[in-house]
Specification:
This protein folds into three domains: 153 residues, FAD/NAD(P)-binding domain (3-Layer(bba) Sandwich), CATH 3.50.50.60; 53 residues, no CATH class; 133 residues, D-Amino Acid Oxidase, Chain A, domain 2 (2-Layer Sandwich), CATH 3.30.9. The mean pLDDT is 95. By secondary structure, the chain is α+β, with helices and mostly antiparallel strands. The radius of gyration is 21 Å and the shape is globular. Helix 1 links the parallel strand 1 and strand 2. The two termini are 32 Å apart.
Length: 405
């Protein structure tokens, strides 16, 4: 089907889980709305959505009252219900957060406090013996059991969202890259690789390219996407018994990353990781992936250099761990000492679209900006997949304001 000359009420850019969830919410709240979702890749969920570890997050980590906390709690429950309704395999297995040193105990206490403030029932504070009852091979002096955490395949979830959108009359088009946007006739004219599309409104859920799409639309996003690659190992099949479910360290509160951890996936594999290194390509999943354009943009952005001055030592440590299996395994052994180098093999990687402002600050919360006839989702890091249905409803609410204005 050609896209030339087609007219829509709303076009959503980006076929990851946030884009499809937004389309899902719009088709639910506005029956009869002419909606199209455009994805540049041949399939949905090709990037952040399809490269994460599949964890359904509980809402433990996030500052009470933040968009992350609000949307994770509501989105988690909605996601479990959606998976049950649509027969998507998932498990509510719980996880343990492990303190291995005395100096981590205050941060563990803070996590417990945040979890309670965010409405998590059934949190259990654990001593060393309790930890080993949950995870017999773990080493730690204290911990926290979080029963709300689960696992799912987010690609399957995204495809299910899209199937509902299509059933409601929405158009989901893959292999359709946005090339340009201009205002015309009281609306927007979108130039794509498959032709011209006209729309009254646009929703930017382009993930790794959301800042670029905002600029194509004539908006100043005020942030720049700096990509960070997270690399994983998987446990050898014979050693998967070292991990029952999910095992996390106490995270460093200075960074929006959770540290290397163990995740049992819905297919039975056990992942270990990720680290967090600067990626030299926005869709660069290999250690040697490089895009001259992406690298130049990073180097020309003042916020990146301010960020680098603050955290260059940590960055070097992450790069060392990227290239040294010994160092990676050493960090994993903090949680499971009996794990050996031969027990893990290098696996895949994901790239996180991290928004950085001009001061060098890493944006921690979701960041959604409204423009004239447009909504831009400019920072949707973890737990965006867990919170996708809630975020989709929030974005759809912002679009509704545009429709009636």
């Amino acid at each position: 089907m050609t896209a030339t000359g087609e007219n829509f009420d709303v076009v959503v850019i980006g076929g990851g889980i946030v884009g499809t969830a937004t389309a899902l919410a719009l088709t639910a709240t506005h029956p009869g709305l002419k909606l199209a979702l455009l994805e540049k890749e041949a399939h949905l969920a090709c990037h952040q959505t399809g490269h994460n570890s599949g964890v359904i997050h509980s809402g433990l980590y996030y500052k009470p009252g933040s968009l992350k906390a609000q949307n994770c709690t509501a989105g988690r429950d909605a996601l479990y219900a959606f998976c049950a309704e649509h027969a998507i395999p998932h498990q509510r297995c719980g996880k343990v957060v492990v303190a291995t040193r005395d100096e981590e105990l205050p941060a563990l206490d803070e996590l417990h406090r945040r979890g309670l403030a965010n409405g998590l029932d059934g949190l259990v504070r654990l001593d060393g013996a309790d930890l080993r009852a949950h995870e017999p091979h773990v080493a730690g002096i204290a911990g926290l059991f979080v029963p709300q955490t689960g696992i799912v395949d987010y690609t399957s979830v995204t495809e299910a969202y899209a199937a509902v959108v299509t059933a409601r009359g929405g158009v989901v088009r893959t292999g359709c890259r946005l090339l340009g946007v201009r205002r015309a006739g009281g609306g927007l004219q979108l130039t794509t690789t498959t032709g011209i599309v006209r729309s009254r409104h646009l929703v930017n859920c382009a993930g790794l390219h959301c800042d670029r799409v905002a600029r194509l639309c004539g908006s100043d996003p005020g942030v720049h996407i700096v990509p960070f690659r997270g690399e994983y190992y998987t446990l050898q099949p014979a050693r998967r018994t070292l991990v029952r479910n999910l095992i996390y360290p106490v995270p460093d509160p200075a960074f929006p990353f959770l540290g290397v951890h163990y995740t049992r996936r819905i297919d039975g594999e056990v992942e270990a990781g990720p680290n967090a290194v600067l990626a030299l390509k926005r869709e660069g999943y290999g250690r040697f992936s490089l895009s001259p354009r992406d690298l130049l943009e990073i180097c020309l952005y003042p916020g990146f250099w301010r960020l680098a001055r603050l955290y260059w030592r940590v960055g070097l440590q992450e790069y060392a761990r990227s290239y040294s299996k010994t160092l990676f395994v050493r960090d994993l052994q903090r949680l499971i000492p009996e794990l050996g180098r031969a027990d893990v093999v290098r696996a895949g990687a994901g790239v996180r679209a991290q928004a950085v402002d001009r001061s060098g600050k890493l944006l921690d919360d979701f960041h959604i900006v409204a423009g004239e006839g447009m909504i831009h989702v400019l920072n949707a890091p973890s737990p965006a997949a867990t919170a996708s249905l809630s975020i989709g409803r929030k974005v759809a609410g912002e679009v509704a304001k545009l429709i009636v204005s």
